[in-house]
Amino acid sequence: MLSRKRFFKQAALTAGGLFAGPALLEAAEYFNPLRLTILHTNDTHSRLEPFPMDGGRNQGMGGIAARARLISQVRQEEEQVLLLDAGDIFQGTPYFNIYKGEPEIKAMTLLGYDACTIGNHDFDAGMENLAAQLTKHARFPMLVSNYDFSGTPMENKTEPYRVIRKGKLTVGLLGVGIEGKGLIPDNLFGNTQYLDPVQKANETAELLRKKKNCDMVICLSHLGNQYKGSDKVSDEVLAKESENIDLIIGGHTHTFLDQPLVYKNKKGDEVVVNQVGFAGLILGRLDFEFTKFSGKKLAKSHTISVSQKSGG
Q1: Is the pLDDT of residue 265 over 80?
Q2: What's residue 31's pLDDT?
Q3: Is 110 helix (H, G, I), strand (E, B) or coil?
Q4: Whether residue 172 has pLDDT greater than 90
């Protein structure tokens, strides 16, 4: 039997634990990170099957089936996963020449993409075709904030941004496209108005950060990684001229980055930029951690080779 003194001591400790419980839980949440895994592709160019076994450098690499297995594996391992694409979904294999993008969009829907942006080659079968493929087969948004499609077949087929909840995190996604003049034939680009991507990205990112209270703002960009000795707008330029963008997922220049690039924006904050080549050879993976104590940080980055063996 407990002595009177020990009884009161134990009771006091128990009561103290009950009162401290919520504070301890709050402290644990304060220090323990929330995790967000971002998987991404760019410039897949209709590569639905692996490269043929013909002795070429990329033989056996790529393919939608191997990518699907990898994505499924990551989703089984991680609770909060985003799957994103930075444009040029179309053009590059007979699948596009024959079916005009239908199998590509269907495949992305089946893989559960959360969003994509538009690439210059996504215009290659005309705006009417792209609009039809998105309307019939896409269960994900195509995001672009700096194209005004008013009065064209693509009017109301894209969105400037999308807000997604991932567990306790609110993630804002936006898109920017490259200038069409000189790159996309006039008859395909039609009456589309190209707007300054830096200005529109900054306006949209500010809305996502301040009005939508996003914990993270991601830009899907088809501007291209870098242009040395040129005044063309690139992901590097956008990152340095931005204020509220945390991550740029890039495309267009088919750049294979072994590690993401990190720039300082106009406020001195870090902006991470990544791009993973072309043709679905690589699945990019970025793992971010969020805590109330230290904010958000890139905890780990991976470049995952996609092949018939890599998906298990």
Answers
A1: yes
A2: 67
A3: helix
A4: yes
Domain CATH for 39: 3.60.21.10
Query: Is 20 within a domain?
Result: no
Counted residue by residue, the chain has a size of 312
194: β partners: 147
CB atoms under 10 Å from CB of 297, counted, come to 13
- Residue type at position 182: G
CA 1/CA 53 separation, integer angstroms: 79
pLDDT value at position 103? 98
- Residue 295 tokens read as 């904010």
Domain carrying residue 188: 35-305
pLDDT of residue 86: 98
Tokens encoding 40: 């991404």
Residue 45 belongs to some domain of the structure = yes
Mean pLDDT of the chain: 91
* Tokens of residue 25, six digits: 């839980």
Rounded to the nearest 5°, which phi and psi values hold at 169?
A: -100, 140
CA 151 vs. chain centroid, Å, equals: 29
Q: Is residue 54 part of a domain?
A: yes
Count of domains for the chain: 1
Helices (H), 44-184: 64-77, 94-99, 102-111, 127-137
- Give 10-68 pLDDT, tens digit per residue: 544 444 444 445 554 455 555 688 999 999 999 999 999 999 999 999 999 999 999 99
Q: What is the mean pLDDT of residues 201-221?
A: 98
Do the Cβ atoms of 186 and 166 come closer than 8 Å?
Answer: no
Integer Cα distance of 251 and 88 in angstroms: 8
The residues near 219 (Cβ < 8 Å, ≥ 6 apart) are 173, 174, 175, 176, 201, 205, 238, 242, 245, 247, 248, 249
Q: Is residue 114 part of a domain?
A: yes
- Predicted pLDDT at 16: 45
